[in-house]
Design goal:
Length: 371
């Protein structure tokens, strides 16, 4: 950011909370990077329920806990805006961005709003069965979201889908890939656990499609009698997934580890990481896996996997929702895995060093424009 004006730029990052998701981890890391680069940075959270990441914040980042549930947060956002002269507001979801648009309209404060789009909005609203979502939320998003100053998407496919859904955003978007969040330990032994296993990481919710993973694993279990399937993550579908394991006869071959602060050890020990999502924003799981040399097998879902997975180089792309193809591609990776060095090399475009400068470019561009 240019310092021609002789003062540090004030940036506030807004997010609902600091639970154990990829967006939350990236938010914390970006706050730290901006502070290291000379910005005056605040991280504004609605609440710290289920907090997993605040301990990672550097002292230079000011943590603001509004201590309120999301449905009641608007008055506190207004109060915070009136009391603080924020130059740039970076919203870590489209819902937060819409709230900030409302805050700007009500307070007449002239701050810039950069929205970081963390999921495929077109797909979210297509699959939503909520009448409230379809009749109230979606029209509000369509009306207010285009009023932000800029939208950062997590991949090219997400940007295309967003512009298709909201054409008025054309010219106010780009895409910046997610960075990996752990350090590459080249040359380090990958054998961490005593068992051989395939890994699934993510919230145990419908979007992740883990029932496909269990079905696919059950079909190859006899070919690999020592192989296990590990799940790392928590969520409302754990019971359903355990029942699916019973149905497919693999209860004794599946382990659920719940939320883990350090997932890198699971990636390092895995034979492969499997992603069976119905849709994604940009799957951090895949880049975190390849960054430690573990190949990936992923549904070619909207959006993200096709921009990460290079078949035969760092894993295999699977025909969307096709369990037969999932079994074939998983066996290919297990029987003839790509080299450790090749997999790691494919991850280096997702390093924080490369990604951060693109965020800086966006903030420069947005601030250079008149409000």
């Amino acid at each position: 950011m240019s310092e021609a004006k002789g003062e540090k730029q004030t940036v506030a990052l807004y997010i609902g909370g600091l639970g154990g998701g990829g967006a939350e981890r990236i938010c914390v890391n970006l706050a730290n990077k901006l502070a290291d680069d000379g910005f005056l940075v605040s991280l504004v959270v609605f609440n710290l329920l289920n907090d997993k990441y605040s301990y990672l914040l550097k002292d230079k980042v000011k943590l603001i806990n509004l201590n309120v549930r999301a449905r009641y947060v608007l008055p506190k956002l207004i109060t915070y805006s009136l009391k603080n002269n924020v130059r740039i507001a970076v919203a870590f979801s489209h819902e937060v961005a819409v709230l900030l648009v409302v805050v700007r309209m009500l307070t007449f404060k002239k701050f810039k709003i950069v929205a970081r789009n963390i999921n495929n909005l077109k797909k979210i609203y297509e699959v939503s069965s909520s009448r409230w979502g379809k009749l109230i939320v979606q029209p509000l998003v369509r009306m207010l979201y285009p009023k932000v100053d800029f939208v950062i998407n997590q991949c090219r496919r997400m940007e295309i889908d967003l512009i298709d859904w909201l054409p008025s955003l054309k010219g106010k978007t780009n895409y910046i890939y997610n960075p990996y969040t752990q350090t590459i330990d080249e040359g380090e032994s990958k054998k961490v656990f005593s068992e051989d296993y395939v890994l699934c990481v993510g919230r145990l919710e419908a979007q992740k499609g883990f029932h496909y993973a269990i079905e696919g694993f059950s079909r190859i279990k006899n070919r690999y009698p020592e192989l296990m399937l590990y799940f790392v993550g928590e969520g409302g579908l754990e019971y359903s997934l355990r029942e699916a394991a019973k149905e497919h006869g693999v209860t004794d071959r599946i382990r659920f580890f719940g939320y883990q602060k350090d997932v890198s050890q699971f990636y390092k020990g895995a034979r492969a990481t499997m992603l069976t999502s119905l849709y994604e924003g940009f799957p951090n799981v895949l880049i975190e896996s390849i960054s430690v040399g573990t190949p990936v097998v992923a549904f070619d879902c909207p959006s993200g996997p096709s921009e990460i997975v290079i078949s035969g180089v760092n894993g295999m792309l699977v025909d969307y929702k096709k369990v037969d193809d999932l079994c074939v591609k998983l066996c290919m990776v297990l029987d003839a895995p790509p080299s450790y060095e090749t997999v790691i090399e494919s991850s280096k475009i997702f390093s924080w060093e490369k990604i951060f400068f693109r965020y800086r470019d966006v903030l420069d561009e947005v601030c250079s424009k008149d409000t």
